[in-house]
Design goal:
The chain is an alpha+beta fold and 101 residues long. Helix content is 48%, strand content 19%. The chain has one domain. The structure holds zinc ion (2 copies). The site of one zinc ion has 7 residues, from helix 1.
Length: 101
């Protein structure tokens, strides 16, 4: 599949890893109240927003930094699921109808 944010193309898992590493800033995270965090990811194709709450298991700032990476992994997983379900499905069937070989 294609990276939704650039020209990168690889398997779904590789694109997921690439998103976490290269496009981490696409995931918006912020803290609500006492250590609760929320994240938001916006689909670059249709602008649909996915927002959810995450609960860190600790208040340690170092831990929270590691945790924000986990949040990105979860958020991009949601984005990929959304893109595969909402956008890639149509693209794939169009390509199959065309001349791939
Ligand atoms: Zn990319
Ligand atoms: Zn979308």
């Amino acid at each position: 599949m294609h990276c939704p944010l650039c020209e990168f193309e690889d398997t779904r898992d590789s694109v997921h890893g690439h998103l976490v590493q290269a496009h981490g800033e696409a995931v918006e995270t912020w803290t609500v109240g006492s250590g609760r965090m929320r994240y938001r990811i916006v689909c670059p194709r249709c602008g649909a927003e996915h927002e959810a709450r995450v609960k860190p298991r600790g208040q340690d700032p170092v831990f929270l930094e590691t945790f924000s990476r986990e949040i990105r992994m979860v958020a991009f997983d949601m984005l990929i699921n959304h893109i595969v379900a909402e956008h890639e499905a149509t693209v794939t069937s169009e390509q199959e109808a065309g001349s791939e070989r």
